[in-house]
Amino acid sequence: MVHRTLENRLLGKLSLADREFLLAGSEVVALSAGGTLLSPGAPIAHVYFPTDCAIAMLATIRGQPRTEAGLVGREGIVGLSVVLGAESTSLCAIVQSAGHAWQVDAAHLRHCLATSPTMRDCLHSYAHVRLLQLAQSLACRSFHGLDERLACWLLMTRDRVRSNELPLTHDFLSDMLGVRRAGVTLAATRLRESNFIRYSRGHLEVLDTAGLEASACACYVADKRLYARFMH
Ligand SMILES: [Zn+2]
Hints:
Elements: H1 2-5, H2 9-13, H3 16-23, E1 27-31, E2 36-38, E3 46-50, E4 54-59, E5 67-72, H4 80-83, E6 92-97, E7 99-105, H5 106-115, H6 117-143, H7 146-161, E8 165-166, H8 170-177, H9 181-193, E9 197-200, E10 203-206, H10 209-215, H11 219-230
Antiparallel strand pairs: 1-7, 2-6, 3-7, 4-5, 4-6, 8-10, 9-10
Helix pairs in contact: 6-11, 7-9, 7-10, 8-9
Bound molecules: zinc ion.
């Protein structure tokens, strides 16, 4: 069990005792692309620690397309609201890229947090990182161009799912980046013409990581640095 738990980096930050306490009675579940893990306003029954999938956190405004409010993979937890004492969230969590995650009962997590100060400290540090990452992504939307944002977002997704094969449609990318589909198509075409990626219907593959890194805005490195700095 220990080996599998380390596939989620956040679980790997917990002490062995905390990890075993948290995962007692929990199981690894398979998550299908497009599945809903959290719905706005609904009580959170389970939280998830992804091991090889990417979960998009989406904010919705009535009458507007959904907008990305975070991307969670093997570095984090889906259901952070529970860690912060809330019963529900205003966000929607959708499986962007299929894979697996540890599914933990929310009531059990609350019990663990009330019992273990070290677990609470670790998960609060992660909440802090998520807050800073969200601020970074807001600044990114305001100041960085679409091409560099797309490169950044593809790299972040790749790191979270640990694969160069990314099942992404242009419609989904359009939602994630908050721009029109035509803009995403143009930006993706430019990355493809540079041989950094290739794609065909709903399937995108990273071919040249170094090339993408050179094309990405500084937010890619900033995102990784935030995690490294605050998650010891
Ligand atoms: Zn940026």
